[in-house]
Task: inverse folding
């Protein structure tokens, strides 16, 4: 089973999401439109809370220290990627660091190229510099802008506009190809603080939470069974802006990944089978992939600065597959409408460990 570790993206990318994925059992029928109604199963307890890291960003929150490993570079790290959204053109480029070495996966329609690669500098006909990579003796180019957009140059030299690839899709690409680092691991904070990486059931996970930490149950569209959300960062109202997710797979809990909001103003929310995350500049929602039975980004829309002009980029999905992505073409009003939709969803209220 493949997993990815969280890594801060390079300056040319804004971290879209942190989704370390594993397939889960008990899924609903194959691809369908997202539901109109579902119900949240999060429970709460009233008590005080330590807000010591309320203001930490996604990048600043602590993740497991690999310093105890003999090789700190061991594992697979997603560094960033791009995806096209043109009719008839479906190219995805994902860059990784695998056991300390650079790696790439390119998915061009039905064709897959992956492994170690070499790069050289190149320019488009209009003078834009980009990186030309060679993998499996095939050449593709890419260039990242500062606003989650970029270009992909296909193997025939054609230039296509692209947007940032989310980490969940990158994980699924790794699963599809089998390109991974054996022995690479992903962690929840529960595994890190307990030293245990295999749990019998959800109650076993909860039993290893510490005082002041919390848990909640949610049902995401695409999976019939409850998902367990655990957090080590509760606010006074028992909400949180970060949670590790687990699903049941083959009779035992499997770690799905971590999702993040931003401080008390942008806690995690849940409604109608959809998990809401993000901040003032990023609208992020999640459900379960029909194909991979794993955590999948439903919508990812951001505002960005393009030479002093605010632009809105990203994609939306009405169905839980990768075949019906829609470019976000709205402006300020439409983006604000998305943020208002998120604000209407109830906060996830966690049960706090005394």
Result:
């Amino acid at each position: 089973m493949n997993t990815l570790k969280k890594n801060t993206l390079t300056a040319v990318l804004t971290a879209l999401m942190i989704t370390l994925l594993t397939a889960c059992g008990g899924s609903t029928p194959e691809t369908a439109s997202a539901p109109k109604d579902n119900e949240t199963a999060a429970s709460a307890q009233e008590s005080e809370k330590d807000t010591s890291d309320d203001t930490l960003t996604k990048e600043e929150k602590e993740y497991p220290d690999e310093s105890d490993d003999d090789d700190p570079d061991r594992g697979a790290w997603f560094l960033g990627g791009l995806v096209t959204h043109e009719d008839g053109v479906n190219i995805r480029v994902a860059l990784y660091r695998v056991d300390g070495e650079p790696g790439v996966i390119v998915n061009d329609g039905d064709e897959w190229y992956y492994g170690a690669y070499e790069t050289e500098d190149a320019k488009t006909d209009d003078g834009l510099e980009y990186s030309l990579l060679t993998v499996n003796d095939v050449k593709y180019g890419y260039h990242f802008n500062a606003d989650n957009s970029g270009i992909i140059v296909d193997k025939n030299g054609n230039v296509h506009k692209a947007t940032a690839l989310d980490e969940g899709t990158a994980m699924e690409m790794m699963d599809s190809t089998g390109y991974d680092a054996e022995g690479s691991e992903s962690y929840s904070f529960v595994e890190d603080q307990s030293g245990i990486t295999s749990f019998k059931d959800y109650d076993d996970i909860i039993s290893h939470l510490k005082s002041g930490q919390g848990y909640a149950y949610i049902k995401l569209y695409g999976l019939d069974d409850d998902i367990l959300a655990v957090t080590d960062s509760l606010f006074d109202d028992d909400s949180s802006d970060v949670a590790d997710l687990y699903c049941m797979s083959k009779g035992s809990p499997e770690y799905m990944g971590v999702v993040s909001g931003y401080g008390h103003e942008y806690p995690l929310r849940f409604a109608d089978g959809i998990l809401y995350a993000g901040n003032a500049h990023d609208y992020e929602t999640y459900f379960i992939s029909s194909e991979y039975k794993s955590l999948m980004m439903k919508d990812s829309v951001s505002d960005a600065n393009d030479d002093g002009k605010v632009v809105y980029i990203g994609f939306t999905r009405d169905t839980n597959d990768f075949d019906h992505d829609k470019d976000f073409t709205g402006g300020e009003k439409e983006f604000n409408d998305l943020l208002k939709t998120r604000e209407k969803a109830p906060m996830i209220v966690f049960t706090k460990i005394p």
